[in-house]
Amino acid sequence: MNSKDIINELSFKAIRSSGAGGQHVNKTSSKIELTFDLENSNALSKKEKERLKEKLSSKLTNENILILFCEETRSQHRNKEIAIKRFLETIKKGLTKPKIRKETKPSKASIQKRLEKKQNNSIKKALRKKPNLD
Q1: Rg of the chain's alpha carbons, rounded to an integer?
Q2: Model pTM?
Q3: For bias kind Basic residues, which ranges apply (predicted)?
């Protein structure tokens, strides 16, 4: 994955932002909408695309387009930087391969310890019962 190639494939759109800013917010478009077309990307291999479709399925549209919004600051440029950073983190997280779990069996000492604990618990509860006076 080459992040420079991926960033070149991104498209940005500036939208009017809600929130703080007073009268100025009504005039400027500081909110950024970042879109990335996963299906038509040349920077990703087929395997990477498949993995991203699988992992990011809840964030993708029906046309396999990833859309991110950023309206944290009043600056359009700063929002664009934040959106790109978030996008790259999302892609890297989506491309990470999970570690393969190696099954292990418990040690003899841990098995013995567990059995002794169960036995002690059983004795403790047996002592709570009323004595049998026959």
Answers
A1: 28
A2: 0.67
A3: 125-134
Cα–Cα distance between 69 and 87 in angstroms, integer? 10
109 domain-assigned: no
Q: Are 36 and 10 in contact (CB under 8 A)?
A: yes
Residue 73 lies in a domain: yes
Q: Please count the other Cβ atoms lying within 10 Å of the Cβ belonging to residue 16.
A: 13
Residue 73 is part of which domain span? 3-95
User: Residue type at 90?
Assistant: T
- Rounded distance, CA 75 to CA 55, Å? 31
In a domain, 107, yes or no: no
Query: At a CB cut-off of 8 Å and minimum separation 6, what does 56 contact?
Result: 38, 66, 90, 94
48: CATH: 3.30.160.20
Residue bearing tokens 């080459």: 2
